[in-house]
């Protein structure tokens, strides 16, 4: 099988505090979009560790995952290139901790923003993907699975990039 299909693995955090959800506003090829704090799984890290890292990099908040909200498969066609991409997203919920306001946010991230559910729903046309709202809706529906469902073998942490 020379052209094996491999979806891009991503992680996302669904964070609610006092009735508001933590989102990021980011520059994309399609303009300014809103997303859950999210990003790609890097070599050598578990999905849980990737989510902790992405939340810190994109929002400057510490994050402690407490449960898996869901696993999502989404297909996307890039507007400018026509590339057909499939994403496999692990969405976690948990608690935010310290905000490190001195941190520089990831490239492309304009700001972290707290929004009510009504505000999130009202700007669905600005969401990076339909998963932004879907993950929040699943969180609100009480969907939770224990983190123990996700096993990362020790061999993953032993990853070494090729020279």
From TrEMBL:
InterPro entries assigned: NUDIX_hydrolase-like_dom_sf, NUDIX_hydrolase_dom, NudJ
EC top class, as a word: hydrolase
Record flagged with keyword Magnesium: yes
Cofactor(s) this protein cannot do without: Mg(2+)
Record-listed E.C. numbers: 3.6.1.-
GO function terms (MF aspect): nucleoside diphosphate phosphatase activity; ribonucleoside triphosphate phosphatase activity; thiamine diphosphate phosphatase activity
Entry-linked CDD domains: NUDIX_Hydrolase
PROSITE patterns cross-referenced by the UniProt entry: NUDIX (PS51462)
Family label: Belongs to the Nudix hydrolase family. NudJ subfamily.
Protein name listed in UniProt: Phosphatase NudJ
């Amino acid at each position: 099988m020379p052209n094996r299909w491999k979806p891009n693995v991503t992680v996302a955090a669904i964070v609610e505090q006092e009735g508001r959800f933590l989102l990021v506003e980011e520059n994309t090829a399609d303009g300014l979009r809103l997303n859950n704090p999210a990003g790609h799984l890097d070599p050598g890290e578990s999905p849980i560790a990737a989510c902790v890292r992405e939340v810190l990099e994109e929002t400057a908040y510490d994050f402690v995952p407490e449960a898996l909200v869901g696993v999502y498969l989404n297909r996307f066609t890039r507007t400018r290139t026509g590339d057909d991409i499939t994403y496999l997203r692990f969405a976690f919920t948990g608690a935010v901790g310290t905000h490190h306001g001195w941190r520089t946010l990831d490239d492309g991230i304009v700001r972290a923003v707290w929004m009510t559910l009504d505000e999130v729903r009202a700007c669905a046309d600005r969401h990076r993907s339909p998963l932004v709202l879907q993950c929040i809706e699943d969180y609100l529906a009480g969907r939770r699975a224990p983190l123990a469902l996700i096993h990362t073998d020790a061999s993953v942490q032993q990853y070494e990039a090729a020279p």
